[in-house]
Specification:
Helix content: 25-40%
CATH topology: Rossmann fold
Structural class: alpha/beta
Radius of gyration: 17 Å
Strand content: 15-25%
Number of helices: 9
CATH superfamily: Vaccinia Virus protein VP39
Largest sheet: 7 strands, mixed
Number of domains: 1
Order of helices and strands: HHHEHEHEEHEHHEHE
Strand order of the largest sheet: 3-2-1-4-5-7-6
Length: 226
Amino acid sequence: MNTRDQFIQDVIEWDVVNWSKCLPFFLENAGDIAGKEALAIGERHGGLSLWLSKQGANVISSDLNGVTPEAREMHKLYGVSHAIKYANADLTSLSYPDNTFDIVMFKSVLGALRSIQNQQKGISEIYRVLKPGGTLLFAENLVASPLHTFLRRKFIKWATYWRYITIDETAILCQKFSSFTYLTAGFTGAFGRSEMQRSFLGKLDSLFEKVVPEKNHYIIFVVCKK
């Protein structure tokens, strides 16, 4: 694995081929990131914080109970620790004042909030702490196809409580923002049982996802401007 591939693997972690499509989409639509104050939510192993810091942002890397020791070690390895601070953060009740951040970013977090009410509360909290003109960047799991729903219930242990969203719900959650831009991706990659399988299936998705209706894709990438 070359250095660039390892970096993307460390940022994205799971079904890298499909989920990593968010990164060029974010760069294309987010505007300048360098020098901005950013909050990364639901970080666990710190991948998004790594990416934001490499774009030149000053980052607070947060999770409900704080990031893992592995996140801190990875940030040291990449030489970005000077640009990252760490915090505990509950998306539904952020402890930061209004208009604090230029950028808020997360990946695969909304589903863990379990209800549309909590999901809306989380997005509203992000809106509150963003500065005027600030940017929300996120990638999230979609409901996708009936096949996804069936296989999740059969094989995914957290599918009993995870609340997958639709494209229309995503737009409603973000309706307070002045702009809402999205892209969808992935279909078969979600079915892989190992990262090797997901990588192969993700490459198939890259070839064929344009002929799959976007409502059947399983990931949505979103950029919102306050």
